[in-house]
Structure prediction request, 551 residues.
Amino acid sequence: MKKGSDLLVEALENEGVERVFGVPGEENLDVLESLRRSKIELVLTRHEQAAAFMAATHGRLTGKPGVCLATLGPGALNFSTGAAYAHLGAMPMILITGQKAIMTAKQARFQIVDVVASMRPSTKMTRQIVSPASIPATVRDAFRVAMEERPGPVHLELPEDVAAEEIEDVPVIPVHPLDQPVAPGSALDRAAQMILAAKRPLVMIGAAGNRPRLVEPLSAFVRRLGVPFFNTQMGKGAVTGGSNLYLGTAALSEGDYVHEAVAAADLIIAIGHDTVEKPPFLMRSAGGPKVIHVGYQSATVEQVYHPDAEVVGDIGASVTALAERLGGKLPEQTKTLELRQRILAKINDRAEEGRFPVTPQRLVHDVRAVMPEDGMVCLDNGMYKIWFARNYRTHVANTLLLDNALATMGAGLPSAMMAAMLHPKRRVMAVCGDGGFMMNSQELETAVRLKLDLVVLVLNDGAYGMIRWKQAVDSFPDFGMTFGNPDFVRYAEAYGAKGSRVTSAEALAPTLEAAFKGGGVHLVDCPIDYSENTRVLVQELRNKVPDVDLA
Prediction:
């Protein structure tokens, strides 16, 4: 006879799961044995948080839920940050945790936490499995809910006695396709008329526009309309191709150079904007451009986002239908494209400056130089994220992964490990601040054990740099933000990885190139100078005179 754990693993296989990430415990031993006898690979991590980040990134890159496994109590609670990361970032994921037996209580309340309740605010669904017979249906429902728009994490708790209980075979439930509703023709017609009436329309691509299945329809939409576009941080890289229509990334809410184009626009077509991100621009009650919201779901109205019209339905079908209505009918936006050249020139200023420690502009320039078009850069969270969002040009979709939703530290290395597992023939780089890197640096051992090809670039300033910068900008004394670091080269070598240290600005690109050519896991320690944050992001932008006259 089969056990509940066997039914669970069969249901996961039915969903096409190839890997489960996690740290099992005593309460998962039946599941572990069922996994051992299955086709599914167990990827053992050194911390549950890293397992959750890897599973979430799997969902982000494939559109199919990644799966992670932890035991009860402390193990399950270590999933909390990863669950929130996937929930705010709209990444499909299944979290499976163990629990003490529910039919008996031989260990009283030892290690028991109400994990189902704790997961409720940061998941789409959380459920305790109380019968092995319900497992196939519960797993099918979990995957369906995780993948439905808006995608996100689902939590299942499997008590150890339910996992161990023997039962007659219960068949799995076949996977069925999930088609999204299509926007009504009246909404599409209304939007098309507003676009035709606009003199200076812009397209903005947000987080919900950056789904694997949308790459082709969005890329075709931009080409056919010929309308200049910009993106939010999490919308970056949604369109394939080095388009001459790209204006930049709204890494700041307002006041950056890309906002000169926003200020000049009379209509913004906001595709997939998710207000979980910091606002890419601030709508005002009067005097600003009109906004059309194109999304899977209706707009979340906020003080700074209240669209004038909405096209609600499958985004791929919506932009295809709009392209059919508008293709070839819009005049070329000559003046906006002239403004584009000025915007990009200002953003790329000082990109080859030789100062050392390296400046953020030089950092982004040299990383771009060593990465092929399909190379993948996975960012942790820190001050450098704004610079990569503003300055790094993507040419292939999903090749710059950053988090502008939960914006948690510690996710960069696990995210890059997942990218390297999914795309072993591409160059993959994790870019981490020294603070964020040390939050999950133990996963270097996991990366080495998995024989991944991966470069980990650690930006070394001995501080929690972004908060220290904000502290200075807000005129607070410099306090509580600095720390000491290990010798990162020797630290990497202790895990069996390779290590290098950058000693001049001119050495950065050659050191990264050598790290990739050497193969395996290679950490590069690079000192960084963040004084440019104040010069550019505060002084220059605060004092700039907008160069806009598109009348």
Summary: The radius of gyration is 24 Å. The first strand starts at residue 2 and ends at 3.
